[in-house]
Design brief:
single chain, 527 residues, mainly beta, eight-stranded antiparallel beta barrel, five-stranded antiparallel sheet, 9 helices, 30 strands, 38% strand
Length: 527
Amino acid sequence: MLKKILIGLTLSSLVLLGITVATPLWGVSAQPASQTARSAVATAPTGTLQKMIVENGSVTMDLDLNRLNASTLRRFNDLTTLHFATGANSFFPVLVFNNQLRGPIPGSMALIPQNSVAGIGDAGVNAPSYSLPASLGASLKQLAVEKLPSGQGTDLAVRDSNTGFTFFNIQGHQYDYDPAAQSLAITNGKLVVSKEFAQALGRPSDAGAVVGTISIGAVMQSIEITQVANGEPQSVVMPPMQHALNPATPALVPGPDVIVGDIEDVDQQGNNATQVGLAIGTDSCNNGQEPVDWFALPDTDHPFIPQNLYRMSGGADNNERLEQIGQSWGKHAFLALEDFVCGTCNTSGCETGTHLCPGCSDPYVSGLNGDQDQIGSRAWVNPFTGSFPSTANDHSGHSHDGVSHRILVNMTDLVPAGNPGATYYGEAAYITPHEYAWCQTHPGECNMFNNFSYKKFTVSGGPTNFIFNQAGNTVRMQAAIQAWADTGATVTQVEPDPGNDGIFGRMTVPSEMRDSAAHRGMLTPAY
């Protein structure tokens, strides 16, 4: 099912504004200003704008390893071919207007090494006759192709998705989009040695040398479709992602049970001089046999969606500490779509739109969850009962900058060079008064303690614009603190006032796991 949103949403205007500035949908007139104004409506576009990402694909690199490993880069020799698959649902977005490619926008596609390649043996393992440079060989299983923001001097780059280290800039490439097949081809790309790779090779003068080619073929899928009339957005639909998840169909539990079925992405949506504003895309699922109330404001019976970001870093294994480095205000849910991300969606006897029906899902992309005019303060929300006033989304009396109300994170907490080996965890929850009310009348069918889910990411880019690369699947119905528990710590749930207040997690870390006494003991975040 498609999600349809009227043009009042700020998201639609922002998307169109961004396209108008970066890749105009209509030409700039050379007429005098008065004539241009009169013809503005006539030249403004009408049609369908699609934002698409990579569903699946393949990437081929032809590298001259002899030349790359030589003491000087003088001439091409035999090429060695490396084959990769793209990560499923890689967030490498492109814009398509009336079936014509308008161009890519910043994002990345993960590269997954495939079968053995000539001269290399098993992917990522150097054979005696051919040897990748040490740094490239070490990063072979975590490479990504990234679309860079404007002003970077190049359009695409091949980077280590964990560290952000750039191996090659891509130049001379061509884009070709086939609307019938919804396929994107990027061909004739030249692999150019980056300055930092040249430094790592010990040959700074080799920066800018061409050492191979790259080609990409990908099947694309729409994640947002905007209908435009005379340059103005009329409506937006957000199709469910194909093959986004591969979970077993859940066995529904008694009562209403809204969970975070998928953490879609972490996306930077603004910044100031020292901080960035992030948002997390979420897919909710009703894991219960009863519909979940989904009445939009000013009604106060709907889920509230807060978001958090954590960083794990330090020590020999980069897991010495887990820190919360950012949190956001929360989205107030307003319309349930009854999609199928989480399994079989049963709308029989269920009032759709104002309820999330049993087994059904509802997407909120990061652009919605980070829409500053559509998110409300946590201060108004009781995190245990889920209650809040009808004015919980009031923004009167203050103005917004690029980070207001979003997940506020210091840039220094994200710069890869300053956080080597760090991993990041995007976490979201759906807090709803319906579940609390149900628990009071049906204590044996209480599902209000499983509202959090999280996903692991790595960060590349910087120092002011960052890309979050998925590094795992969504861990459902668990708070992000569980990621630290997976390193050997023990989490104990404590309920200090059963029935009247929430649960917090007490984490015990064995002292032999930590080099510093300062990191021993327990951590007690509320969730």
